[in-house]
Amino acid sequence: MGAVINQLPIGLSIAAVLLLIALGLTFTFGQMGVINMAHGEFIMAGAYTAYLLQDWAGRQAVPVALPVAFVVAGLMGLVLERTLIRRFYGRPLDTLLLTWGVSLLLQQLARDLFGAPNVQVRAPEFLEGGLGVLPYNRLFIMALAAGGVLAIWIYLNRTAQGRRMQAVMQNRQLAAVMGIDTGRVDMRTFFIGSGLAGVAGVALTLVGPVGPALGTYYIVDAFLVVVAGGLGALRGAVAAALALGLLNSYAEFWTDASLAKVVVFAAVIAFLQVRPRGLFVLRSRALT
Amino acid sequence: MNGALLEVRDLSVVFDGYRALAGVDLTVQPGELRFLIGPNGAGKTTLVDAITGLTRPAGGTVRFEGRDLAGRAEHEIVRLGVGRTFQTSVVFEGLTVVENLDLAASFRRPLWALVRRRRGVSDQVAGALEIIGLAELADRPAGVLSHGQRQWLEIGMLIVQAPRLLLLDEPVAGMSAAERERTGELLTRIAADHTVIVIEHDMEFLRRYASAVTVLHEGRVLVEGPVDQVRDDPRVQEVYLGRPREGAAGGATGGPVAAVTAAAAPPGGGGTE
Amino acid sequence: MTATTPQTPATPATAPRFAAPPPAPPWWARLGGPAAFTAVALLALVAAPLLLEPFRLNLLAKYLCYAIVGLGIGLAWGQGGMLVIGQGVFFGLGGYAMGMYLKLHEAGGDLPDFMVWSGVERLPALWAPFASPAFSLVFAVAGPMALAGLLGTLVFRRRVRGAYFAILTQALAAATVILLVGRQGLTGGTNGLTNFFELFGQDLAADGTQRGLYLVVAVVLGVLYLGARQLLRSRFGRLLIAVRDGEDRVRFLGYDPATVKTLTFAVSAGMAGLAGALFVPVVGIISPALLGVVPSLELVVAVAVGGRFSLAGAILGAVVMGQARTTFSEQFADGWLYLQGALFIVVMTLAPRGLAGLAGTAREMWSSRRARA
């Protein structure tokens, strides 16, 4: 029983990180049909942002880095969208390979800039210690994810920009006909989605070292969250991230680390037998 | 009623809380040519979707030759003998005309038999090429066909499958006058030895080729009967115009239904409903 | 394989294969099919073993193993529209099957060396059947086919497709690597299985053995290529293209696309498995690093570079990319990653039909010029 409780904060913080990563993927995938493999490298960029800011902000690097990483990763996403992804609308599978090429480039760039060995970011003093089994750093990550979800929810439902984004997600042609500048909306989506990956990267510095391949450890799981959650659905992403994060950490605990991913994979396949299009879907009559 | 080919009873379909079909009954006898009309949103395509397995009904039954179609996958329903076309034709552009037809004609072969290469053109496919008038384009990719030709090819792909019930979803939508003429002839020819249900918006076409008509409105069957009787029914005029017309009697040329066409039925086919 | 391939690069809207489009193609394109294949076969089977030094021939054999995987990817992705980014799993299954046989043979009744190092005391039951070479070879093909068949049935029957399917294959590759690395005593962990010396009584280090292996790989590739080509020209091949271009429409022709896709996926997995089994004696190792997400994706991109819509293009891409990697990483190791990344971006952006597509475009321009003249 004690183990179940001890494992909970780990599971929840994995879920929180997955959620931050998957939120961006859900929207770029759901709205634009883009499978962005370079999303993982935006995570890495966020983490290195925190690492670099240590020179200046010392142990306050993590909180300082949060907004900076959001902008850095967001701008990277924006540039990617403007220069390359733009040309690939209607070819979702091709974007996967394209962005993977980008991902390779960015990883090698990081290796050249920061060196291949992992680096550490020191957590701020106020995140040391914890409440019983609940370490402050993991609590902080959970709060960050909750804040991210809340902010996205408010953005989507309470702002004109967010409503436009939802309109484009549900019916791009119709939204365009209604006078929505879908190109602008796509840019914003990419900026926000990628920015969240940057924030996730900063969060990851609290629980482990930073290396050029940081993103690759999370990107596959994050995509599974998108598959299980359903496209473009906020609540789907939240539920799926929670489920997969917890399953991951408990599977690691009860079986062993090598089997956990297999268990998660099998669970996702089993889940798709019941809900083949994920938890939440927008119905469409289109024949493909 | 026991000899009915298709029996739809109390069929309902719900899309996220919206009742697209609210208890539809429809009986089609073997050999019939039935037209299905109604304003946009009446549920015509939804009805065809539910019969052919594309949409899961929320309630009611669909029986074809006495067999329940509920819960069967689309391809199983096709194998039982129900074929359909779509509003926007979807032939395989990467294959030639004859390959499209051949593929349709081979659907009852076991999968392992498909590993053999096609030699020549079967009589069945050649016959269909003749009927749909695309013999000269047989070896061209279907991607080069005009809109009308694609619709005919699609009808041809149905014929070679020898279905016992054909459902055609707006076969003349978007066609030129000449193409419509030819499609009408094609339809007459097919209807001679097939049972056919046609969804159609085009009232001129309806007047020329329909015998029996079912009018759908707001997910229900409004009127059913011979075309003249339906045309003169005041309820039909009401749903097409939104309110009864003063002096609705049909002294006007072509009858009120024809008069109503321009308002209710864009020839472009209006897309979804 | 040269650019004058027997296969017209078949984008969804190109000319059919057995009905010539109106402007007659130039003589060399009409002759293309059998002549080009014969030329390439002669080059591969006679010239290469005579002219290449053993080290280079061995490398070529390795590329041809990748080309077999590429052929399967071309079939599943180019023709069937299923983006498979976890083929490394099937390659690995075949490779490990062969590696386990070689290891057991090497140990001659004792425990394989790495098990001793990991403190394993009894041979795990999973290993026992792999003492038989026949079982190992059959498993190398049948195992991947069964796994792909199972996954395909579960996924395609529920109509999960496109990007979802791609992501699932990728997740499978990631999970497999972690599993293999974690089970040190069973799988050799990160190091995988290596130190092989003998295959069917032949010294693996001998030039003669390697030349023989090269010929086996080349013949297997040639046979599979011809088989795949026949498959594509058959009604099944037409059906596969139809499924790629309009899966839902195919259902209304009375076919179940899930069956077509599952079968094709299984065939491509079987090819990858066989390639893995051949790879092990050629290269001398099978390890998790050879079958994860990255090598799986690299193969897909190689196919894209060669031309996904053409089977010959898929083979060409695997060989070209294999050679490019060797050449460039010999000279500047880090630069290769930049180059590779940049190449993917350029190919996907500017030439989505790959080298074969460029050749096709050149041929079309040629014939339209002749038609005008």
Automatic annotation (TrEMBL), chain A:
Pfam families found in the cross-reference section: BPD_transp_2 (PF02653)
CDD domains to which the protein is assigned, alphabetical: TM_PBP1_LivH_like (cd06582)
Regions that span the bilayer: 6-27, 60-80, 92-110, 136-156, 190-210, 222-247, 259-275
Keyword vocabulary terms for this entry: Amino-acid transport, Cell membrane, Membrane, Transmembrane, Transmembrane helix, Transport
Coiled coil: none
Keyword Iron in record: no
GO cellular component: plasma membrane
Membrane topology type: Multi-pass membrane protein
Family note: Belongs to the binding-protein-dependent transport system permease family. LivHM subfamily.
Name assigned to this protein: Branched-chain amino acid ABC transporter permease
From TrEMBL, chain B:
Domain of life where this protein originates: Bacteria
Compositionally biased spans, kind Low complexity: 255-266
GO terms, molecular function: ATP binding; ATP hydrolysis activity
Gene Ontology cellular component annotations, sorted alphabetically: plasma membrane
Region (Disordered): 245-273
InterPro entries per UniProt: AAA+_ATPase (IPR003593), ABC_AA/LPS_Transport (IPR051120), ABC_transporter-like_ATP-bd (IPR003439), ABC_transptr_urea_ATP-bd_UrtD (IPR017781), BCA_ABC_TP_C (IPR032823), P-loop_NTPase (IPR027417)
Domain ABC transporter stretches: 6-243
Gene3D superfamilies: P-loop containing nucleotide triphosphate hydrolases (3.40.50.300)
Cell membrane among keywords: no
Keyword Nucleotide-binding attached: yes
Keywords, in A-Z order: ATP-binding, Nucleotide-binding, Transport
Matches recorded under NCBIfam families: urea_trans_UrtD (TIGR03411)
Protein name, per record: ABC transporter ATP-binding protein
The species this protein was found in: Sphaerisporangium rufum
UniProtKB/TrEMBL annotation, chain C:
Membrane-spanning intervals of the chain: 31-52, 64-93, 134-156, 163-182, 212-228, 263-287, 299-324, 336-356
Alphabetized UniProt keyword annotations: Cell membrane, Membrane, Transmembrane, Transmembrane helix
Keyword field contains Lipid biosynthesis: no
Topology of this chain in the membrane: Multi-pass membrane protein
Domain of life (superkingdom): Bacteria
Single GO cellular component term: plasma membrane
GO molecular function: branched-chain amino acid transmembrane transporter activity
InterPro entries the UniProt entry points to: ABC_transp_permease (IPR001851), ABC_transptr_urea_perm_UrtC (IPR017778), LivM-like (IPR043428)
Protein name: Urea ABC transporter permease subunit UrtC
